[in-house]
Amino acid sequence: MITTGLSMAGQVAGHQAENNAIAGRNRAKLRNHQEQNRLYDREVMFDRAQYRNDMALEDIKQDDVYKAMVNQWTQEDQKLNRLFAESDQKIEKAVIEMYENEYAGTQTGRTAARLAGKSAKKLGQQKSEILHNLMMSKEEAIVSKEIQTEEARSKSRDLYEQIRFAPIHGPTPMAPELEPKKSSAGLILGLAGSAVGGFQQAGVFKPTKISNTRPPGAYGGASDIRLKENIKEIGLSPLGYKIYEFNYKGKDTRYRGAMAQDVITKLPQAISVQDGYFYVNYDMIDINMEVV
Predict the structure, then answer these.
(1) Using a CB cutoff of 8 Å and minimum separation of 24, what contacts does 226-229 make?
(2) Which residue in 116, 117, 120, 123 sits closest to 94, CA to CA?
(3) Distance between CA 70 and CA 64 in Å, rounded?
């Protein structure tokens, strides 16, 4: 009996040790999952801060692009104003030269008129050339401004594309799959087997030949799976007990009932042990033992 007790204690200790190890591994998985979530949250926070900073820088660069375009326009206007001023000076100089050349001296008649007309013609040619150059310069300034405007728009679009989309983060870390604890059913069966073996060794049970067709009594016959064959699961009772059809080994009669190894995991008090085999008290469960 001491050996049996030590064996049963060892089984309990081993079962608890396995469950403790499983619990430890599950805790480690959960801690790792928490750390992954913290890292994920930090990355999201940093990405959002970087995006806000990029947006602020983009606003500054957009302003710089606009200012650069306005400065280029101002330079074109100044260049055009300078050309107009220079042209005015050229026209004024040409008018002065015309009046200075109008004096025909001692010439009279046609010669005097021809000399005066020559000066006026020269003035007209100079004015025409100056005005033509001014018109061309003005058109060039307009074209240059359009080019500068388009370049500014292109730079503005490029800057906008850099911050057009906010950062998109992937899914949060998946929760780990935890290991289930060891079921107590196996422990109960092992302890029951050890107890039966201990009682047999102590002489409490006297092995006798077991009839597989033991007449129904308080425990309805042997329900141990070790005594049965051709077992077929056919359903589930309202209380959750599995229902089987079977025959006892070496017998042809088919029965319908429960399996002791199933009942012991749900209602151990409905099980008795006789001659090393499990019996079910059918009065305590919602299944009847009956011939098919």
Answers:
(1) 226/277, 227/277, 228/259
(2) 123
(3) 10
Tokens 């000399």 locate to 115
The Cα 218–Cα 1 span in angstroms is: 29
Pairwise CA distance, residues 152 & 159, whole Å: 11
Tens digit of each residue's pLDDT (9 = 90 or more) over 137-149: 888 889 888 998 9
Q: Which 3 state secondary structure label does DSSP give 249?
A: coil
| Bridge pairing between strands 255-257 and 228-236 | unpaired
Q: Which residues pair with 280 in a beta bridge?
A: 271
Nearest-angstrom CA–CA distance, 260 and 282: 10
Query: Can you tell me whether residue 279 is helix, strand or coil?
Result: strand
Distance of CA 281 to the CA centre of its chain: 55
Q: How far apart are CA 220 and CA 259, in angstroms?
A: 12
Distance CA 220, CA 288 (A): 9
Task: State the Cα–Cα distance between residues 237 and 283, nearest whole angstrom.
Answer: 14
What is the Cα–Cα distance from 65 to 270, expressed in whole angstroms?
88
| Whether 279 contacts 232, CB under 8 Å | no
Rounded to whole angstroms, the Cα distance separating 241 from 267 reads: 10
Q: Return all residues near 254 (Cβ < 8 A) that are at least 6 apart.
A: 230, 245, 246, 247, 291, 292
Please give the structure tokens belonging to residue 221. 């016959």
Mark 32-51 as b/e (b = at least 16 C-beta within 10 Å): ebeeeeeeeeeeeeeeeeee
Closest to 147 (Cα-Cα) out of 82, 77, 81, 69: 69
pTM above 0.85, yes or no: no
Query: pLDDT (tens digit, 9 = 90+) per residue, 238-256?
Result: 999 999 999 999 999 999 9
Which H helix or E strand runs over 226? none
